[in-house]
Amino acid sequence: MNRRSMAMTSMGLELLSKKPYSPPSWASHLNPLPSHIFSLAHLPTPIHPWNIPNLPPNTHLWIKRDDLSGMQLSGNKVRKLEFLMADAVAQGADSIITIGGIQSNHCRATAVAAKYLNLDCFLILRTSRHLVDQDPGLVGNLLVERLLGADVHLISKEDYSKFGSLTLTNILKEMLIKQGRRPYVIPVGGSNSLGTWGYIEAVRELEQQIQSGSGNVKFDDIVVACGSGGTIAGLSLGSSLSTLKARVHAFSVCDDPDYFHNFAQDLLDGLKAGVNSRDIVHIQNAKGLGYAMNTSEELNFVKEVAEATGVVLDPVYSGKAAYAMLKDMSENPKKWEGRNILFIHTGGLLGLYDKVDQLASFVGNWQRMDLGESVPRQDGIGKMF
């Protein structure tokens, strides 16, 4: 590639392009292999030291900023969508259906990706039975989805639990087909065997970053939040197959570790990977009060990390994972001592807007500016006056 081509690529002229996909050599035995990928994310995402206080002795922590993979499409979801949207277009879809919680980052990212590719988007969003018949509002991810014109269908948590995501998306799919539409269904979190390639490919990116870096850092551990299972399946498989060989630690923010081990196993089996999920990823429970529910300690932790390091975590995924990681480090320091650890920030900052009432007591650092009587008076200038 000449210098001009490199400059054009760095300027993002490949964004929204569909390209043939060639897997990393160490993943070429997996089956089926994706044929194409859509360039949707701003990659590679940066890695930098993360100076959180009170780590165990000689423990070094870095963070990979997948929250910076694009403002509207930010986070881990976009990596999966690069493969899923390519498949949707290849199948001639004119619309996308997906499903998640009322503040689902995945649903927001899917709505953005769909509109980028001139597809309609239909979202099934899970909410309280008390709110299912009300306007869901314009907070956080909902604001983006509704600005984009996504078609929002609300379902109560009880009905979601009773029927399940597969049945609900299929009901909507059949309804659209009867209307002459060609819908493509993306599962919760984009977590199926095809979506798993998002983080297999992310491992190749990580390999290249390490090889081209000047610090010669080798990561012993990778830490990430787990909410639907696709990210940990791809990340742990990629780490085990590649030169990385880092131990993947997942902190689950819903369900339980056994569920995610079994779910990840299904995804791995779907790729004919021939590995046991329990051999390549360690999963710990970090759901606390429940999915998308936070204790005051968790939210205060998010505020303290932002104040200490400049990194803003989301309350649903990375905030809970980092909180649980630090708690584990405090309780089991020998497990982490002397390790080089990479934490992957999976995005979701728009979810913070849903927590403003709970956060208010932690961020009261404001006051009216005191000008005093001795300050000389003069007329302000500029267009704002």
Describe, in plain words, how this protein is organized in 3D:
Residues 40-347 form the Tryptophan synthase beta chain-like PALP domain. The modification N6-(pyridoxal phosphate)lysine is found at residue 77. It comes from Clitoria ternatea (Butterfly pea). Its cofactor is pyridoxal 5'-phosphate. There is one protein chain. With 385 residues, the protein is α/β, with parallel strands linked by helices. The protein has 14 helices and twelve strands. Strands 3-4-12-9-10-11 form a six-stranded mixed sheet. A four-stranded parallel sheet has the order 7-6-5-8. The longest helix has 16 residues, at 197-212.
Main attributes of the structure:
12 strands; single chain; alpha/beta; 14 helices; six-stranded mixed sheet; 37% helix; four-stranded parallel sheet; 385 residues; TrpB-like_PALP_sf
Which of globular, elongated, flat, extended, rod-shaped describes the shape? globular
The count of β-strands is: 12
Span between termini:
52 Å
- What is the number of helices? 14
Task: Give Rg in angstroms.
Answer: 22 Å
Oligomer: single chain
Query: What is the H/E order?
Result: HEEEEHEHEHEHHEHEHEHHEHHHEH
Strand content: 15-25%
